[in-house]
UniProtKB/TrEMBL annotation:
This is 50S ribosomal protein 6, chloroplastic. It holds the Pfam family DUF5323. Residues 37-53 have a biased composition (Basic residues). Coiled coil: none annotated. InterPro entries: Ribosomal_cL38. Residues 35-71 are annotated as: Disordered.
């Protein structure tokens, strides 16, 4: 390696002091250009560290077969009264007293 600069050794920039000029704002003198050990985001980390199937019996295993579920009861049932006079709505229940 002929060049011994930080960017040529590690493949990224480094923390460099900012040049102070007249009329320029100073933010402390250092700027972070890259991170030496960036962290993976959550999904990338979980994809990389997920459990792998290594045993043949586990790789070739088929999903469990369950019996089909019975049909669900209907959500609504339409009740048609036999007598039109009984179609009047029953009185509402009395309100419960607050404790």
């Amino acid at each position: 390696m002929s060049s011994s600069s930080v960017s040529s050794m590690f493949g990224c920039g480094a923390v460099l002091p900012q040049a102070l000029g007249i009329g320029k704002r100073s933010d402390g003198g250092l700027t972070i250009v890259c991170s030496s050990r960036p962290k993976k985001k959550a999904t990338a980390h979980h994809m990389k560290t997920r459990p792998r199937k290594t045993q043949p019996w586990d790789i070739n295993r088929k999903p469990t077969v369950y019996d089909p579920l019975p049909p669900l009861p209907p959500d609504w049932t339409l009740v048609i009264p036999a007598d039109a006079a009984s179609a009047a709505a029953p009185p509402p229940p009395p309100p419960t007293p607050a404790p």
